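Retro notes - structure team

What went well: the batch runner handled both jobs without manual restarts.
What didn't: labels got mixed up in the shared folder, which is why I'm recording both outputs here explicitly, each with its sequence directly above its tokens.

Job 1
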Amino acid sequence: MSDNIVQCAPEVGHDLLLNTIADADTEYRSLKSLEAYAGNHRKTSIINHPTNVLKTTRDRNYQRLNALPGIRFPRTERFPVGDKSVSAIVTDIETAGFSMPLIIRETGTHTAVTTKLVEEKAELEKYLTSVSGDSVYVIEFIENASVDGHYTKMRFFAIDGALYPVVRHVDEVWNVHGGNRKTFMNSHPWMVEKEKQFLTDPASVIGAKATATLQKLPGFIGLDFFGIDFTLLEDGTVLIFELNPAMRHSFNHAKKSPYMRPHLEAISNAFQAMVERKIAAT
């Protein structure tokens, strides 16, 4: 049950609680339960307070991140599916002012398993016939290809207020993912060199202005750990694709690209140092 922590709370308190409930869409009730527990144990220090995790859904990120100078988050709205007919859902999306092309995905899914760019109404209708969840996200598509036709997705982890570079993926399709590393990226040595540069000195790749913009996010978001997937638009605006604490820290890419390992180890060490600092402060 999602409220076990409230109903069966231990009699002895804790100095530090590490919250690994990271998906505000799929684990809303669990996060609300932990939030209630935190309210009754205010002296307990919490890494990633549930109140702030709850604010990291895609639609809430859209609502709040665009208020920050230098940042753009694509318009993102949640549409209930439930027992609605496909035509009714399409009407809801059109009435809300979305136009093609647009991105659609089921809420609470990751790694793009349900993500699709639809360019025609018929594609949207076909997609909606296969939805298994209760709601979908409809997301504004913002063209962000470079002049040479490449798409880039960079990632930072924010840990204890500092930013740590994770990856700089390049692809020839809009939906950039790490699986391309062993094919497309590795066949273009300059892409690998650019990623090495980003991992070593990210400001030299994205510029001082974008760096300063991104460095404001940890304080604004209020989480001890989270990830940011982004690229830069032509005018230097930071286009954020995703921001939440549900991004996993993995060494998989380092098996084929060993130059990544020291930077991934730095992330592990930073997280460990944060935990130790917080324990010492209790």
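Job 2
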Amino acid sequence: MTDKSKKNIDTKPIKDLAKLLDELNLTEISYSDKEFSVSVSKSINVNALPQSNVSSSSENPGVDDNTNNDYQNDPRAITSPMVGTVYLQPEPGANKFINVGDDVKSGQTLLIIEAMKTMNPIESSLQGKVTKILVENEQAVEFGQPLVLVE
């Protein structure tokens, strides 16, 4: 006797999304309608990504080139716990959460990462002085990417 409460899962939409994920070079994709919802994501080795062309500027004096490789295993680095978009201030026009030279405490909000339309505060796991901000406002980040250096 078969259990009619069990539902067979149609894997075709999942496979189609996975194929689209690769074709569009995305790390995450979701689809939903009234009866069905699915999300597909893949992890990326941050060291395998091409180097971003981030340059230092007077607006972000702590932004540095080659951040993925230079600070990947640095014990001073606060890294991204997710894929998303970085926001350095709580809302447009507001003061930044932190600036280079600021003293931060463990648990203090350093920035926000938006992932799947959810704003996620990223808190410091270290206590000390901010020596470098390795990302720019509204920059896309990957899981494990160094964001801020705290000494």
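One thing worth noting from job 2: Helices lie at 12-23, 67-70.
We'll revisit the folder naming next retro.
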